[in-house]
Design brief:
heterotetramer, A mainly alpha, B mainly alpha, C mainly alpha, D mainly alpha, B: mainly alpha, C: mainly alpha, 7 helices
Amino acid sequence: MLLLTSILVVPVLAGLLCLVVRPPRVMAALGVLAFSTTLGLGIVLVRQVLVRGVVTEWREFLSADALSAWMVLLISVVSLATSLYAGRYFRRDVAAGAITAGRVREFHVLTPLFGAGMFLVVLANNLGVMWAAVEGTALSSVLLVALYNRRNSLEAAWKYIILGSLGLALALMGTVFVYAAACKNNPQSLPSFNWSYLMSVAGKLDPHLLKLAFVFVFIGYGTKAGLAPMHTWLPDAHSEAPSPTSAMLSGVSLKIALYALLRFHILTTACLDDGFSRSFLLGFGLFSMFLATPFILIQRNLKRMLAYSSLEHIGLICVGFALNSPVTIFGALLHMGYHALTKPVLFFAAGNIHQTFHSLEFRVIGPGVVKVLPVTVLLMGLAALAAIGLPPFGLFLSEMTIISGGLEAQQTAVSVLIVVALLASFCGILQQLTRILLGERKPGDHTGDARRMDGVPAMAMLLGGLLFFSVWLPAPLLELLHQAAGIIGGKP
Amino acid sequence: MNLDPLLLFLQTLLLLLLAPLVSGVIKNWKAKLQNRRGPRPWQVYFDIAKFLRKDMVISEHASWVFCFAPYVVFLTSLLTGLMVPMVSLPAPLSLFGGVLAVVGLLALGRFFLALSGLDPASAFGGMGSSREMTISAIAEPALMLAIFTVAITAGSTDLSQIAQSTQSATLKLLNPAHVLAFAAFFIVLLAETGRIPVDNPATHLELTMIHEAMLLEYSGRYLALMEWGASIKQLVLMTLLLNVFFPVGLAGPQASAAALGVSLIAYLAKLLALSAVVVVVETTNAKLRLFRVPDLLSTAFVLATLALLSSFLFH
Amino acid sequence: MAALMLVVQLLMIAQRMLLTNIRLFAIQSFFLAAIAAVVAYHHNASHVYVVAVLTLIGKVIFLPWLLTRLVNRIQIHEEIEPLFSPPTSMLICGGLTLLGYVVARPFTSLERLGNNTLAIALTLLLTGFFLMINRRKALTQVLALLTVENGVMLAAVALTTYGMPLVVELGIFFDVLVAVMVLGILVYRIRENFASMDTSKLNQLKG
Amino acid sequence: MNAFSSTLLTFSLWAYVAGMVGALLFQRAEKLANGMGFGFAAAGGVFGVFSCGAALVNGTASAGQSIDLFPSLIPFVRFSLHADALGCFFGLIVSLVGVALSIYSLGYARGYFGRKNVGVLGALFNLLLLATTLVFLADNVFFFLMAWEIMALTAYCLVSFEHEFEETRNAGVLYFVMSHIGTACIILGFLLLFQTSGSYGFDSFHALGDKMPSGRRNAVFLLFLFGFGTKAGMVPLHIWLPAAHPVAPSNVSAMMSGVLIKTGIYGLTRVFFDFMGTPPSWWGVTVLTIGTISAVLGVLFALMEHDLKRLLAYHSIENIGIILMGLGAAMMFLHSGHPVLASLALIAGLYHTINHAVFKALLFLGAGAVLHATHTRNMEEMGGLAKRMRWTALFFLVGAVAISALPPLNGFVSEWLTYQSLLQGFGTTTSLIRLMFPLSGAMLALTGALAAACFVKAFGITFLAQPRSDHARHAHEAPFTMLLGQGILTAACVFLGLFPTVFLKLFDPLTQQLIGQQLSQQLTAVNGLVLSGVVAQGGTVSTLGITLMLLCLLPVPLVLWVLFARTSRTRIAPTWDCGLRELTPQMEYTATGFSKPLRMIFKALFRPRREVQREYDFSPYFATTLRFESHVEELFQTHIYRPLKWLVLRTSRRLRALQAGSIQAYLIYMFVTLLALLLFAL
């Protein structure tokens, strides 16, 4: 059976179906159906990858190794949660007249396509196709960001698309250079542009050209992955998009771009076999972590704060990869997963708060949200504790893994810097959230229609998963992660 | 365990009887020095007896602490007396505690004294307790340091041990460390026994009194216990100074009756001498303002520190 | 011929009128198509012809037509006020060109059609980038983006033996088309909401 | 640890779990939740006491191997416990205090019925006990850190339990932030150890310090001192403590002040005496100095408080200081190679640890009862409670005497041991450092005296004299469970005070494990009646003897009654009021007034500020209304923390300009980065 193909096709079909079906409930259901299918397929894929190492289809046009399988899982889970949450969310928005039914349809059409694009990114073997797919995700998501036709959301969307596609143009330049390197290698025929092929000839590629290529690719995909200082679109887009989309952007989309970057990183390292690309990842990762913290400390807007925290986590993940010891890479991959399970919950909760208080400004929301939305606050609190790296949640584990791995690799200074950055963001998030979540409502505020149970299934699903995987990483998953770490670390 | 019941009994008796006399003597000599006739030395006995006979008036606001305090004050000072060698080494109860226990027990007495001052809801009592605790607090480090200086040389906190080691090397008495410590302890003694220039035992002028202020609400037998306890405490501290810092003529263990007699006489002589010094100091000095007292006590602290330093140098 | 593209680029930077800019872009894209055709003829690689044709249809005919239509639709012909004054921007572009040549020098070996196309491609990219910074109108930023794309395509044609594999070419081509459409939609909406296309008005999201 | 102890231990852990689950399940039914939560907690405590006690008594503590609580399913983490002597000792503390607190809470939590969710309170309380116990028993870095963080988190939740008040929220955040800063240091410290040992098990860290390069060794020392010191609340890292302890529910305050800050002491002991090998001399000196400073400053700040619970919180800082003095002296002795003295000092410190746990918990429970009765923490509104709450007053008085280090109670014993070790320390070295011993001894004396002054104020103003407000006037005695809780701790105070020689035996396995000495024989004389210094003729004390003698001397006054006072009668009359009509509460001495002299004497430290606003008709001496206000400033707040915070926030605001919203600027960032990287790549 065509496993990879079906992973790609199922969401596309769901998206196209949404064009024709009428009732919004059905559209939402279609999304849930599609992504739960892909999740199932993803699990099958994992087992096949563990058996065969690499799964390929269409003469290696599509191929999946451990790394891609891991990403497939993340994409499916987050998208599933999103489509679970989106149904009620938009019903409420439509009821409140914040958005038209047509736009809701747009969402239900675009979200699966967005997902499919991300699947293509991780499954495509051809680097050019991968580029096209990334561009595709950017284009589909920008319309989602602009879904509420408000001034702010348009502004955010505009910045997102301009910076994003400019970045991607640079990435394309880089990709072209890589291909050029491949051509220079055998001037006669039209060489294959498959990552697997390039890896096989990596040793013989022109190092200069590859360096140049990596610079462009780094800036390009780095922009999409929100590495500072190319991150500037990120807080805007994440805060202005409808919460389900924010969840997907923050939960996986960043990591997909990072995945694309990683592929080139692996290639470059294999060719140059020095710390060239690693130093990029390290520097920009740390810079992102440190740039994020002051913005968290003095943030006034809930979703922007969450966005900056994503920025910091991405930075941490990059550093994990850059430290390049099996332990840290493993930790970084783990961190990706846990973060993907955590961040959407926070954005969903933010969505509920937004719909109840009609604002995301801390001072407008004011203290005492717990009195209005106890369940949401409980789940949000747990997710926040996870996000700031407290046990028993897994992020604590992965962070500790990265830090200790760094010390093991004698990178004491880096580890100390990581700890400091994490500490600062901890203080910020704790202080801000305590300020709004706890306390007593101020008299005479309009908490109009508080719906206590909104979005609980989605959040509970993710948190449950988080807790479960925090205390138990099943053996196949561990094996998968170790293989993925092996791929990145260059030791298969 | 070496508890000699006879010795214990004798020393208890000595303490009980000698204490009022000492304060009587001091009062008397003071009057003489000020060209007054003054009360007879044994007047204090009569006072105590009178207090004991009188009815008691207890404040309506007072709680059980008020009635409990006099016993604590009296008994603690009596007990400390038994831990200090008076006429013979070792002190009857030296086993039960050395200098730390003595200081601690006196502090316990002071603690309840201060509480009883607060209990009747009178402003005077509160003022008295506040000042008492303040002064004792800043007197404490000087006291400890002075004692440490001798204790270190003896390598023990047991008063009898200290006295013995001091006795064993008499020239140590001229050791600057020793002298300085002696001076420091003397100043602390003045403060702890509520003497001029720190406190004026003779006055009931509200702004100057400290110790008396706490006793204002007491009458009858409780007052007797308080006064008596205070005088015992004074005797104990003086004895401490005399026999620990200046153990001349102190009888050693298992001494014969004659030796005991000699040492008793020596002790009384030293006691009278010390009282004389106290009297002179009290008459020649004016009472200090409350916020000048810390300066005096910090002087004591500095002296003790110097003592420590010099003992460090001479080791 | 690549040099001509650069000249056009510089003209665009100097030029202020919106419609003229669009036409200049069309011309530049035409040159790109021509280069592609030459390459195709040179190595008679059939699929590079496809690229040439696609470029011709897409970037020389369709996109300019679309943009012109958009311009007429939202009625903006007013002047574009740049960030830097024309002389300054000219100087900067000179610097960028220099940088392009410096970066490209080590790779002259792998140039198929000589006269350092790579350098020009890089310069196109950089100047396009600069153009984007320099202009405030939403539409000109789109144009600038497209010129950057042109630079990339030039590199693609120039550096590689037979251009990229067809799949990739197609993918890229359609992505560009869709991108421009999406951008068009956004421009239109922005125009509706802000009654202007001045991106410097888009500065509400801070912190 | 033999089978008996380990079984009981597992029982106690499961009891906590059960309490947690039960309380959460039945949170709708308050009474049931209350009973479940605190009942199970008490049971767990009892099990814990017996388990750890037994392990220490029959000396099998250190013997046992580490047992896995349950198999680990994630990499790096082993959920392994190892109840060695040190762990057991601290386990004993937490369980002992836990029992009393749980019983007390049964009554105290009723105050929340209908207002707050008692189920959550109970669950968190159990979780706190559980986590704390695990902290003491964990045998693996990751597991330790997990327990540590969960403990901190639970404490945060409990501190902000009454989160309706902003003061509470801020205090909670401050606590958690400080605690987390500490944790970061601890993490780094452990990872540095791991860098050397290459394993996460505590067993691999034993005496690791000797194998380390001195630079890293010192780094580890400082990191741990900072990290655990923050948790312990040593000066100058203490600022969170007086903020967080008062605002928590009183049973939690007691838990935090009694046990939680001791986790810091546990960490220091574990690291310095188990991991770090023989320390260089400056470590001991540092710890001793910090200890002395903490002790003195803690009590001085306590004196200035008239919020009863804040006062107690500051005293925790003081006592931590005293404990640190013991530890520091021990380290200095280890350096100079006097294991016997080292163990004496260590015992002094740890003895004071358990003593402080007991009497501070007792005092906080008393304060809780008072709060429960008068609904205020402000001493100026109390008074006269000794008549209205007889038992509470008695218990509080015992606690006060104990904490003031007065004989014959337990505070005196541990301070006596400290004095002994300091005194003997003078002879251990010939360098100038030895002057530190007597000087810190003198400071200890000062601390003790000031503490006495402070508790005369605390007890006198709170419980004696006339009520100063209607709250106090209508106060009522606490319910039985609350009294029982206090009673247990009071009994513990008396036992630890009167029978130190019995208790000292428990230290043998501990000192054996850490230093290789067993002192209980040397420390007791006259078949256990007397506590004696370790060196011959070093001085002896017997609290039991003192108590007995006091009783024996009691006849003296009684005889005098019989002789003289047969006929005298006793009248109850109003206090002498200088001829005014009557004595009103306004005329009493206030807490502020009581501490005035010391405030004046230590002016330089307190920087007192006073504002008097007087409104009068014709002469300022006959004011119609008078408003008096007096503050002292916490110099660490004003000189370290506020400027630091201000600096950080200002920098952040400056950086905010980067994200000013102009897309041109963003493009320029990208452009510049691109150019920079291009140049870098070539």
